[in-house]
Design goal:
Order of helices and strands: HEEEEEEHEEEEE
Structural class: mainly beta
Distance between the termini: 79 Å
Number of strands: 11
Radius of gyration: 20 Å
Shape: globular
Number of domains: 1
Largest sheet: 7 strands, antiparallel
């Protein structure tokens, strides 16, 4: 009877592996909604790739922003393969200390993005942000979600991805025109 108890105890310990319950989330859709702070119609940048890498090309919708304008912006991530669609943004916010969005624009794009939200430790998350445009220009805006970045590394709190580390959950580049 003793060997059975040992086998049972050993099997029970193996099932306690903390890495088994933390599956990566599937992200098929990213929507970045920018609402002018002075009022007006929202601009929506979106990415949708329902079949994942390979297969059909993703559908990317770019947008035009007004010059010299500030926008309140929010991000939403979905897994539209699930039925009903799963809002991954909820999971990112629940695990805010382990996630951060980074916003990078090409030098030709006269726009800046600043964080409007933070995790429980006071570090940026980036689900909510403020986009400020300057004079007319065009270029690319890249949005990257990192899982387990080093939020205390140099520049990371300011949105510099260089020292962030971690793993990229999604990265999307939008063509943007400021008029």
């Amino acid at each position: 009877m003793l060997p059975i108890i040992l086998v049972f105890t050993f099997s029970s310990c193996e099932k306690e592996d903390p890495h088994l319950h933390n599956e990566e989330e599937v992200i098929t859709t990213l929507t970045y909604t920018l609402t002018p702070q002075g009022g007006g119609a929202a601009v929506v940048l979106s990415f949708q790739d329902l079949d994942g890498d390979g297969g059909n090309a993703p559908v990317i919708t770019a947008g035009n922003l007004a010059a010299n304008t500030s926008y309140s912006a929010t991000l939403q991530l979905l897994n539209e393969v699930a039925s009903p669609a799963e809002d991954i943004t909820v999971e990112v916010l629940a695990e805010a200390a382990d996630h951060q969005f980074f916003y990078a624009s090409t030098s030709a794009l006269n726009a800046s993005v600043s964080y409007s939200d933070e995790d429980g430790d006071g570090n940026p998350v980036g689900v909510a942000s403020t986009v400020t445009t300057g004079d007319a220009s065009s270029g690319n805006l890249t949005i990257t979600l990192r899982h387990e970045p080093d939020k205390f590394a140099a520049g990371v709190a300011d949105g510099v991805i260089t020292n962030a580390g971690g793993e990229t959950d999604i990265e999307v580049t939008f063509s943007v025109t400021i008029q």
